[in-house]
């Protein structure tokens, strides 16, 4: 195990070096760390508490988007040397837009653009780069959403429930498997049908 921040280049380098020295290779990278730090973009009323500050913007872009870039760039070195790699990034349905989450939505839309670009740049090098975009998932991230808001969200989900983490992890795993050998540059929305009606 390596302890560090995925948003810090030296920590990510340590993570890559440890993987390579432990397993002699690095074939699979799943970028999954993420944070939210919500707030409306502008104060509509004076004194409104949740305002999207520069600090909130920077924190979310660093941990969500910069980390994905750093991990991809540094993990690609041993993958390119081996002529093989499978990378799966984690976006969100919020990439399509979500009130109060301009920073999070921008970071997740950025991850999709990054995924598409790396897929094009690295296909000839044997590296596939894909992305999953979950809707609501039962994790710590959604535990703090007030019950009333969850009730409303569930009404908008065709399946009528949030996903379990295993249902997202199964798609990450599929995209790294040999069954997915001809898939690259794709973003798979795992959202119980929400994006179909969006
Ligand atoms: N839960 C949802 O409804 C939902 C929906 C769409 C997308 N996602 C995405 O799924 C991914 C996983 O989120 P989750 O729901 O499990 O959230 P979570 O809060 O339960 O877990 C996030 C994890 O990221 C780690 N992390 C945060 N900052 C880090 C850093 N700088 N370095 C290393 N690790 C760091 C945390 O320690 C934590 O283990 C995230 O990218 C999130 O944006 C979640």
Topology:
Layout: H1 9-23, E1 28-30, H2 54-82, E2 85-90, H3 102-122, E3 127-134, H4 140-143, H5 147-155, H6 165-175, E4 187-190
Parallel strand pairs: 1-2, 2-3, 3-4
Helix pairs in contact: 1-2, 2-3
The protein binds nicotinamide-adenine-dinucleotide.
The site of nicotinamide-adenine-dinucleotide (NAD) has 17 residues, from helix 4.
What would you note in describing this structure?
The protein is α/β, with parallel strands linked by helices and 198 residues long. It has one domain: Rossmann fold, CATH 3.40.50. 45% of the residues lie in helices and 11% in strands. It contains six helices and four strands. It has helices at residues 9-23, 54-82, 102-122, 140-143, 147-155, 165-175, and strands at 28-30, 85-90, 127-134, 187-190. A four-stranded parallel sheet has the order 1-2-3-4, sandwiched between helices. Helix 3 (102-122) links the parallel strand 2 (85-90) and strand 3 (127-134). Helix 1 (9-23) packs parallel to helix 2 and helix 2 runs parallel beside helix 3. The longest helix is centred in the middle third of the chain and has 29 residues, at 54-82. Bound molecules: nicotinamide-adenine-dinucleotide. Nicotinamide-adenine-dinucleotide is lined by residues 5-7, 32-35, 63, 90, 92, 134, 136-137, 139-142. Nicotinamide-adenine-dinucleotide binds next to helix 4.
